[in-house]
Amino acid sequence: MLDIGLLQLEQWTSTFLFPFFRIASFLMAMPMIGTQLVPMRIRLGLALAMTAVLLPVLPVPPVADGLSFQTYILIAQQILIGAILGFTLHIMFQIFAVGGQLIANQMGLGFASMTDPVNGVSVVVLGQFYLMLTMLMFLAMNGHLVMINVVTQSFDILPVAVVDFSAIKFMDVALAGTWMFSGALLMSLPAVTSLLVINLSFGIMTKAAPQLNIFAIGFPFTMVMGLLITWVSLSGFLGQFELIADHALGVISQLIEVTDG
């Protein structure tokens, strides 16, 4: 019979559970996988499978001291680190959703919204289109494999141990919100500027000839031109996605650093 002691059992448990909490929280917070479309059991099974595969190459975590306060601190840190990594990636996807919202409002499609099955909220159709296109491009460029590599490297940069919470750059996470709005504005600026010129032209025509009902033809014309401008701007969508994705991965890699002492 196998002679397994309590200390050895605790070591095996802590070796698997501490990385599992970080990986599971990352999968729960990241886009595509951590959505309502993926059942909870599938996410849990994927987290277990990833932990079992990555466990041989991860640093050996400390042995858990039962249900002590230190163990709870370790668990909280792993959940926080994984959630921050997944949340920062989620911000990158919301850049295109916000950019589509700005373009749709300018072209008169702000009222055309649909229920997003991923997040369970109403989203403008154009923003939903950009969001789906971004997810497909992210998967086609093996972005999910890059994120798995980032999570794996996080165990080398910040191993499982009781460390100071200042090792996590919470301010950079907060500033990522400003980066989301600035990126959305830069992405939608060409289309918004073109539609603004069109609306300005109709305003001048209305001022020059008040007897003409310019708004009767201005609204459908602006909508058609907005769709045309959106179609033309899709040719540069790949370049915008590469720049934003490269910046997002750089932000994610800089969120965690090793503190001195």
Can you give the helix content as a percent range? over 70%
Secondary structure tally: strands: 2
Low-pLDDT segments: none
Question: What sequence of helices (H) and strands (E) makes up the elements?
Answer: HHHEEHHHHH
Tally the helices: what do you get? Answer: 8
As for the number of domains, it is 1
| Average pLDDT rating | 77
Q: Please state the structural category.
A: mainly alpha
Strand content is: under 5%
- Terminus-to-terminus distance: 45 Å
Radius of gyration: 24 Å
Q: Which of globular, elongated, flat, extended, rod-shaped describes the shape?
A: elongated
Query: How would a textbook summarize the main sheet?
Result: 2 strands, antiparallel
Q: Looking across the biggest beta sheet, what order are the strands in?
A: 1-2
Description of the molecule:
It is found in: Cell membrane; Bacterial flagellum basal body. The protein contains eight helices and two strands, in the order H-H-H-E-E-H-H-H-H-H. Strand 1 and strand 2 form a beta hairpin. Strands 1-2 form a two-stranded antiparallel sheet. It starts with 5 loop residues before the first helix and ends in an 8-residue tail after the last helix. It has one domain. Helix 1 crosses helix 2 and helix 3 packs parallel to helix 6. With 261 residues, it is an all-alpha fold.
